[in-house]
Structures are given as structure tokens and as C-alpha cells.
Amino acid sequence: MYERKIPLKPECGLDLIREVVYGKWKIHLLYYIAQGIQRPGALQRQIPDATRRVLNVQLNQLEAHELVTKIIYPELPPKVEYQLTELGKTLIPVINAMGEWGDTHKEQLRKAVERNLLIPEKIVS
Predict the structure, then answer these.
(1) Between the CA atoms of 28, 94, 117 and 104, what dihedral angle is there, to the nearest 10 degrees?
(2) H or E element: which one contains 79?
(3) Which of 9, 28, 93, 102 gets the most CB atoms within 10 Å of its CB?
(4) pLDDT tens across 36-50, in order?
């Protein structure tokens, strides 16, 4: 059974945010679903660096945390779409603000990231 390395503190809003939206592609998924891209294949085309499996896992986590709903249409082949819940919709202004902040500071952030990639990891003996 999975054991958490960092215990969740349910009284801390930042811990709760980390729990529900951290994941390499979760913010992208929420953003694209808000833009009207709702089918798994279309989401995969928007995020080509992510594997289908990882996207499915993260979509399932977003669904479990009640940020998206999954609609399965009874047809062959089965058609699946995702929609934001009311709670999920409240995250979109936050995601947009973070994107704008990143765009505003992208040169400084890019340099910091590149510099960090050049620093060799400390070896602990």
C-alpha cells in the first residue's frame, strides 16, 4: 500500500492545493478543458509530450478531486468527454493569472531554470 512521504495537512490550503492540482499535466488539462477541448484524443494532441496513460491517470485524479466530470456516451465506439465542475471553473482565473505571471517574467525564469540545470547536484557522502 502507498505510504505518503509528506503527510497531508488538511487544515492547510496550500497542502490541499498541492494535493489536487500538482502533477506535470494537471494544470494544462484544466486549461484545455476550459478552452473547450474535452475529448481524450484532443487533449493528447494538445499535450504531445505526455503519454496517454499519464493523461488518463491525471484526468482520473482530477475527477476524483471533483474538478472535472467524465461523461461517457452510450455508443459504439464509446465516446468520452470531460467537463469542468463548478469547483474546477473557479481554478481557471488562478491558472490564467499564473500563466500571465509566467509570460511577464519568462526571460528571468528561463535564465533561472537554465542556470539551475547547469549546477551539478551535490553529492552526499
Answers:
(1) 110
(2) strand 79-84
(3) 28
(4) 999 999 999 999 999
Name the average pLDDT for the chain.
89
Do 82 and 38 form a contact (C-beta atoms < 8 A)? yes
d(CA 118, CA 84): 39
Structural domains in the chain?
A: 13-118 (1.10.10.10)
% of the chain with per-residue pLDDT over 90: 65
Residue 25, classed as helix, strand or coil, is coil
Q: Buried b / exposed e across 104-114, counting CB within 10 Å, b at 16+?
A: eeeeeeeeeee
**pTM score, whole prediction:** 0.83
Structural contact between residues 55 and 40, judged by C-beta atoms closer than 8 angstroms: yes
